[in-house]
Amino acid sequence: MTPNSLEIVTDWLVTAGLRPTRQRVALAELLVGDGKHRHVTAESLFDAAKDTGAAVSLATVYNTLRAFCDAGVLQEITVDGSKSYFDTNTHDHPHFFWEDEGRLTDAPSDQLVIQRVPDAPEGVEIASVDVVIRLRKINR
Ligand SMILES: [Zn+2]
């Protein structure tokens, strides 16, 4: 880990209010260590961790991603009932889902205009609005 990425990772965990365990530091480095935003699944992060030689299980990766979400430093985006993506950019923004590749990327926020959303039913409020635009290849 470079001094710069160590600082980013440490700041991120402090912001999250999470104790910097070895596994959290290793996973946080893969998520935000280069200072860029990314979208991961538990499986893709697990594979990336294995590549670096980090000794973590898929269950640990999943639990750690949950802890980061609960702490507000990650955003979960559910694309279909079973598949969750985790985004280090926690600000509201739309996504493209590339169906052929199972990949989630950011869509340009400045091109999205939401005029109105339905009123929330009695007794509840809208917690968030997820915009996922599904893409598929055009076969010509
Ligand atoms: Zn995103």
From TrEMBL:
Pfam families: FUR. Its main location: cytoplasm. It is found in: Cytoplasm. It comes from the Bacteria. Keywords: Cytoplasm, DNA-binding, Iron, Metal-binding, Repressor, Transcription, Transcription regulation, Zinc. InterPro entries: FUR (IPR002481), WH-like_DNA-bd_sf (IPR036388), WH_DNA-bd_sf (IPR036390). Homodimer. Belongs to the Fur family. This is Ferric uptake regulation protein. It comes from Aliisedimentitalea scapharcae.
